[in-house]
């Protein structure tokens, strides 16, 4: 397999039904290392279902999921994580009353021995390093999540995903709840993932943001994959037409 | 170390963490109050003060269990009934088969009741409030029927020494049990992965789940632990009183919850303190002792205790609103 072009994640003919309802069908997509792919579409288009399929929450009804060229069947979020896939959920999935460093290591705490004694020093040091590296501006690794601003929380959630993701980060509306300045900060952090050769698949409702960040744009409508465009080779009019299905002549 | 380096700029008012200090201030205030008011009645004697510590041992041990349970976002209302069933089981087994079977029966009964609660909460996803409300009544009934409302004498000298009136190097065994339970509880709660998972589960169960924490197992574990510690409390009651009766632990529930919450543990999970629960428990014991020495009737004592609990709950819920 070619080294530079091997996708971290390849989806082939993914189909997902809930009862008799088709949520996603005929979905195929490759994501390469260091590539940002945006998933756009109206409400109910199947974007979140797709994220859940990739993150192991809802296994697909049919279709193949390949990670680094190997077929995998993912039946739980734990398995997805073991494969190097991390998700930043819309609600961030942070424990609000705990510290930043405990959240970064939530469920994967560093311990010193078999008894499970926490290695706080190591967790704090690693958090400080990561926060510095990603330029997430929080007062301290000890800060309690509920005392942070929305942007800071988002930064913590992305930092956590970045820290653990070896291959792919899934972002569900990463800046939906943020102001302008905070959005800019979070976008910088996302671009930082690209530099680390991590693949990124993000859902966003802001086309401006999609055009700022994404290398390719994948459009979903009512569970169907309408098309994938290189950001450099398309414009907002075409994408909007694909999302709404209003303009004629779109596949 | 942790929890002190925090951003105080954003909202200074919120960062004064009253729950962490209210129990120590309250403890001091009540101590000083009684020391002054009751200076002629022997409140300040070593004998009386050590009595308070000895009498609160079972409540402290139950409160340690409740810190884990509340921090995980659950509650255990059945601790009082568990104490009675455990003490009676221990007494019957002691008289029939001796020391070790007696101890195992007492602890085993507590662990089983706790595991029963935990299984219903973890796997059937029933709310712990309702489950333990039901088992509180259920096992109170079991305790009554187990011995036909009779009191069972506990005469095994080794048992009463170990769990009651005995001493080691001059230190009463009840104090040693308290210290050991607090030390182990604090270590497990603050310094282990298990403790971190308990806090995460109570703080945000969904986040805990997607982070790979086995949330049902945590819920089972905390309720089993609470049952086991209530079992130990039952042994301590049986050892100290040299008898077991269905009334043991009957009125402890309110005291245990109050001690835990005054001690800085949140009713809705994600935050707790073992040392706080110890001080809260000693405070409740001191309050009982002082109110009796002041000559208050049982009903007046209940009223005053009820007020203290109200204040504690109010302080606990204030954080939630912010």
TrEMBL record, chain A:
Keywords: ATP-binding, Nucleotide-binding, Sugar transport, Transport
Gene3D superfamilies listed in its UniProt record: P-loop containing nucleotide triphosphate hydrolases (3.40.50.300)
Domain of life: Bacteria
Keyword Phosphoprotein: no
UniProt GO molecular function: ATP binding; ATP hydrolysis activity
Domain ABC transporter intervals: 9-247
Name of the protein: Simple sugar transport system ATP-binding protein
Species in which this protein is naturally found: Amaricoccus macauensis
Automatic annotation (TrEMBL), chain B:
Compartments reported by the entry: Cell membrane
Annotated organism of origin: Amaricoccus macauensis
Primary localisation category: membrane
Molecular function per GO: transmembrane transporter activity
Matching Pfam families: BPD_transp_2 (PF02653)
Keywords: Cell membrane, Membrane, Transmembrane, Transmembrane helix
Bilayer-crossing regions: 21-38, 50-70, 77-97, 103-124, 129-147, 167-189, 220-239, 251-267, 274-296, 302-318
Highest taxon of the lineage: Bacteria
Name by which UniProt lists this protein: Ribose transport system permease protein
GO cellular component: plasma membrane
Alphabetical list of InterPro entries matching this protein: ABC_transp_permease
Lineage: Bacteria, Pseudomonadati, Pseudomonadota, Alphaproteobacteria, Rhodobacterales
Entry membrane topology: Multi-pass membrane protein
């Amino acid at each position: 397999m070619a080294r530079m072009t091997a996708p971290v994640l390849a989806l082939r003919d993914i189909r997902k039904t809930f009862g008799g309802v088709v949520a996603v069908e005929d979905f195929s997509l490759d994501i390469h290392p260091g590539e940002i792919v945006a998933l756009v579409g109206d409400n109910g288009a199947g974007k979140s279902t797709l994220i859940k399929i990739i993150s192991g929450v809802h296994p697909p009804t049919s279709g193949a999921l390949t990670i680094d060229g190997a077929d995998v069947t993912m039946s739980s979020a734990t398995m997805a994580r073991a494969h190097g896939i991390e998700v930043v959920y819309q609600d961030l999935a942070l424990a609000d009353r705990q510290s930043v460093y405990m959240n970064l290591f939530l469920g994967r705490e560093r311990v010193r021995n078999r008894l499970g004694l926490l290695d706080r020093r190591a967790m704090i040091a690693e958090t400080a390093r990561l926060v510095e590296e990603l330029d997430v501006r929080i007062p301290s690794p000890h800060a309690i999540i509920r005392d942070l601003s929305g942007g800071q929380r988002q930064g913590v959630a992305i930092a956590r995903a970045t820290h653990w993701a070896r291959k792919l980060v899934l972002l569900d509306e990463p800046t939906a709840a943020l102001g302008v300045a905070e959005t800019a900060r979070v976008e910088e952090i996302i671009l930082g993932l690209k530099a680390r050769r991590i693949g990124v698949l993000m859902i966003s409702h802001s086309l401006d943001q999609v055009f700022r960040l994404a290398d390719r744009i994948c459009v979903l409508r009512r569970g169907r994959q309408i098309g994938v465009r290189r950001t450099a080779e398309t414009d907002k009019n075409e994408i909007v037409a694909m999302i709404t299905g209003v303009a004629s002549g779109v596949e | 170390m942790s929890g002190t380096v925090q951003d105080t700029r954003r909202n200074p008012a919120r960062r004064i963490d009253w729950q962490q200090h209210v129990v120590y201030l309250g403890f001091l205030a009540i101590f000083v109050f009684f020391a002054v008011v009751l200076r002629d009645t022997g409140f300040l004697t070593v004998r009386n003060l050590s009595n308070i510590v000895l009498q609160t041992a079972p409540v402290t041990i139950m409160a340690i269990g409740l810190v884990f349970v509340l921090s995980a976002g659950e509650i255990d209302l059945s601790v009082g009934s568990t104490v009675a069933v455990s003490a009676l089981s221990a007494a019957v087994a002691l008289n029939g088969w001796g020391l070790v079977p007696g101890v195992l029966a007492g602890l085993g009964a507590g662990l089983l009741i706790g595991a029963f609660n935990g299984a219903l909460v973890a796997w059937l996803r029933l709310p712990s409030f309702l489950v333990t409300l039901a088992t509180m009544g259920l096992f109170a009934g079991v305790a009554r029927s187990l011995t036909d409302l009779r009191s069972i004498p506990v005469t095994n000298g080794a048992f009463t020494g170990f769990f009651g009136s005995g001493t080691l190097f001059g230190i009463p065994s009840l104090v040693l049990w308290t210290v050991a339970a607090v030390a182990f509880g604090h270590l497990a709660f603050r310094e282990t992965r298990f403790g971190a998972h308990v806090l995460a589960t109570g703080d945000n169960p969904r986040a805990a789940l997607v982070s790979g924490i086995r949330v049902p197992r945590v819920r089972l574990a905390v309720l089993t632990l609470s049952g086991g510690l209530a079992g130990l409390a039952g042994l301590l009651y049986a050892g100290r009183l040299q008898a077991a009766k269905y009334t043991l632990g009957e009125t402890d529930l309110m005291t245990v919850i109050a001690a835990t919450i005054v001690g800085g543990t949140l009713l809705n999970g994600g935050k707790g303190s073992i040392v706080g629960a110890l001080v809260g428990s000693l405070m409740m014991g001191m309050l009982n002792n002082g109110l009796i020495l002041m000559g208050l009737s049982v009903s007046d004592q209940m009223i005053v205790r009820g007020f203290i609990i109200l204040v504690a709950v109010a302080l606990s819920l204030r954080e939630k609103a912010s």
